[in-house]
Specification:
Layout lengths: L40 H6 L3 H11 L8 H12 L2 H9 L3 H12 L3 E3 H8 L7 H7 L8 H6 L5 E5 L6 E5 L2 H7 L18 E3 L5 H14 L9 H8 L8 H10 L3 E2 L4 E2 L1 H8 L3 H14 L12 E3 L8 H13 L7 E2 H11 L15 E3 L12 H14 L1 H4 L3 E5 L8 E4 L1 H8 L14 E2 L4 E5 L4 H8 L3 E6 L2 E5 L2 H9 L4 H12 L5 H13 L8 E5 L3 H9 L1 H4 L10 E5 L3 H10 L17
Antiparallel strand pairs: 1-3, 2-3, 4-10, 5-6, 7-9, 8-11, 10-11, 12-13, 13-15, 14-15, 16-17
Helix pairs in contact: 2-3, 10-12, 10-20, 14-19, 16-17, 20-22, 22-23
Length: 597
Amino acid sequence: MPFPLSGCALGFAFQPYSARRNRLSGWTSRLPRAALPMQPLLRTLQDHDLGHLRIVAELWGLELLAGSSLEAARGLASAMLDPDALHEVVGGLPTEAGQALQALAASGGRMPLADLTRRFGPLREIGAGRRDREKVWRQPASPLEALWYRGLLARAFADSPTGPVEMGFIPTDMLSLLNPEPSADAPLGRPAAEPATIIPADDSGPDDAVTLLAALRRRPSRDLEPSATWLQRVTRHLMCPDAADMLIALLRDLGLLQGPPLRLQARELQGFLALPRSEANRRLIRAWADSTTWNDLARVSGLDAAGKNWPNDPAASRQTIIRWMTDVPRATWWDLDAFAAQAREQHPGFQRPAGNFDSWYLRETSTGQFLRGFEHWDAIEGQLLRFVITGPLHWLGAIDLGYGPQAPQPTAFRTNAAFGQLVDGAPHVEAEEPRVAASLYPDGRVVVPRSTDRAHRYQIARWAHWDSRDAEGYGYRITPRALEAAGKQGLRSTQVLAILKAACDASAPDPLAQAIERAAARGTEARLQSMVVLRVTSPRLLDELRRRRATARYLGEALGRDAVTLRSDDWQALCDAAARLGLLIEPPDSGTHEPMG
């Protein structure tokens, strides 16, 4: 179907000009006064041999005058820039070629050539001899070739975030004559119905940052990325454990941490803890958006790089995804699968240099299979899109997630005000959050709500025993070991009491204050020790265990004739030794889990 004269349906509105002439003689050049992003028509025609120019003229119904290639290119460009002539040629395009031209114009007149050929067929590299002998322009192999031999499509290399990329484009002065109607960028995907289950965006980033900073103050990591053992001790005290690695990377990017060993920077720490919650969260989101040290692709479950280094540019990929999401209507539920599917259709090579899907050596961790080729787009780019939306953007408070009935994975997302902070770049103005004082109990417990000043919580968490954590806040306890930790950090008992008074808006009760001063001065004077009791059905059995050297060393104080104490760390060894002697012992129901103390 030819293009209609009106640009309403296909987005073209041709500018009026003089009636078309059939010969090139006497025409004056109408080159553009200012170059648009790529190249004007004359420049693109100059790149071709005289035979190609004759083909273009033939398909436009023009007669190419004799002369040099440059003279022919000038005359041909002048004739092709007549709006009436352009209108006639575009209107006579085959349907699929017209659709390709429309898609190219709708994308600003330029697209990576790899994406164009993937959508609209190949653009063959054919030598001039074969071209002229076989007259390939009369039976083009694809819509792109139909555009190519009509001069409506050109190609050139351009810089991109992923490196030089060969672009297919409409010559700039020709694009201005096509005059595609300006319209707001259409968002990828489509709206989604109200989800059956909604998981609001996580707002715990500033809280978990304080927890991690306090933990690193107590036990600095020897490496820039703390070990799994280090994280295991801390993650149960985090509101969003999945974000721990990312937050540590962002705190490094913000200058709060340096290493190795990974240590706090006092000046930057003080400034960060003084920020209002919304501004602290904005700093974290911006740090993620700009980070070159945190690689989202490297955290996608099921993917592995064959070497030590990942091939992608994490910041460039991330910025592209954020730009796409900016077009999604704010506070509107959006279909996650449709968003990814349209990204695959329109921008598949967004993170690939030159759109090459064969150059990366990534593999599937479960099978070891290398994922090379465009057919693995969903396993790499598709999973990256989903991870960015359901991971970092959700963890940092910018995205709400929605689940369909019985759906194990999110099916929809919704941007919010925090996402606006990310894309607008300005601080979100909101009323200062009310600060709630911590509570200090006579038995040494300290309860710190999430709304307590984060600087006060940090000062407590850096030395106190970490007792508990729930959705409302944190529980700490004052113990001799905690006061010993405070002393190692240079805090005297008077400073500990001052920290507690500032956080709780009240002085410690006199008996507790005296206990703090005494423990700080004398150390641990009394200790509770966890023991296991072994009970036997016969005293003779206990005597037998005492006679055997392999088991006797684990037995402690007798508790009557049929019971004895064991150290809690020894029961497994006793069970193993007794089994080797022919006796099975029932183990205790559960072990203990010692929190960070």
